Amino acid sequence: MNCFIGVPTGNTAKEHIDALMDRMGFRDLSFKVKSKSKISTFIAKTFSIAKLPFILNKGDVLLIQYPFKKYYKVICRIAHLKGAKTITLIHDLGTFRRHKLTAEQEIKKLSLTDSIIVHNCAMNKWLVNHGCKVPLTNLDIFDYISNSQPTSYAIGNPPSRIVYAGSISARKNAFLYKLDDNIKGCTVNLYGRGIDTERASKWKNMHYIGFVESDKFISEVTGDWGLVWDGDDIDGCSGNWGEYLRINNPHKTSFYLRSGLPVILSEESAMVPFIKANNLGIAVNSLREVPERLESMSLQDYSIIKNNVMEFKDKLNDGAFFKKAYKKAKSYL
């Protein structure tokens, strides 16, 4: 039987995968708690692992969402002792995200699983180049589940209204505080927390909206593009957060597309081949290029991209990419 350990994480991407597995009839082996506090999450994980040897059966397939903190190795070993197989779905690599693991340590941990679902070709290549021997399957893009639907609104002429959702702190995304003078002719609406109000008070083209719950964002946001950019600079993927775009699939990309927003990405982003292949947005080398790029775009060309996104969002809501990747990853067992 297909199984998983669902625990309250506060991580939207993991919660959506849990929801999809529940839809697909997977057996949830977790110990349930109502609260999502750190203490409750710790208790839930601890009890879930403690009872795993008693409820996991020979022939079961257990999907593990990685990272699973310090319990990952234990889960893999218990599963194999019980005659079960494991599939690992990677959300974040510690080598990149927190820099708490070396590449060698990461590969050693992941070698304990039987099959791995990775984000994209770039992550696949990185794992292989660093010695991973486990069969790999590309997810391509994270699905995004919501009961909300985007509202219909007039397209900008030119389509130059940009939306950014996420951390607005100068520590994590310093590029935002260099953007205003380089985005003339466009408007940028910012959604999130952590804004430096003193520096933001001088902006002319950028407007802080505040934090909005995801379902409300999907149903109410108006704009022509969602900006997928992180790091220190407007001229490319730089800094720890920016560099990570070279290998991962930001859940933010799926969030924008689910909201009916075509995306703007860095040419260095690992998601560019997929976005271009499906004509769901544009890629630039620098955010300085954006005003001219959008000014020269015809409404007809933009409408084609927009229509693609409006059709694509339903695939994300249905879990099409996880379903396909899981089926392929399971075939390697």
Describe the protein.
- The chain is an alpha/beta fold.
- The protein is built from 13 helices and twelve strands.
- The protein has helices at residues 12-23, 38-55, 72-81, 103-110, 121-129, 197-200, 214-220, 239-244, 251-258, 272-277, 290-295, 299-318, 320-331; strands at residues 2-4, 27-28, 61-66, 85-90, 115-118, 136-138, 161-165, 187-191, 206-210, 225-228, 263-266, 281-284.
- The strands form two sheets. A six-stranded parallel sheet has the order 2-1-3-4-5-6, with helices on both faces. It has a six-stranded parallel sheet with strand order 9-8-7-10-11-12.
- Strand 11, helix 10 and strand 12 form a beta-alpha-beta unit.
- The two termini are 13 Å apart.
Q: Please give the radius of gyration in angstroms.
A: 21 Å
Please tally the β strands and state the result. Answer: 12
Q: Which stretches are poorly predicted, pLDDT < 50 over at least 5 residues? A: none
Number of helix segments? 13
Which keywords apply here?
alpha/beta; 333 residues; six-stranded parallel sheet
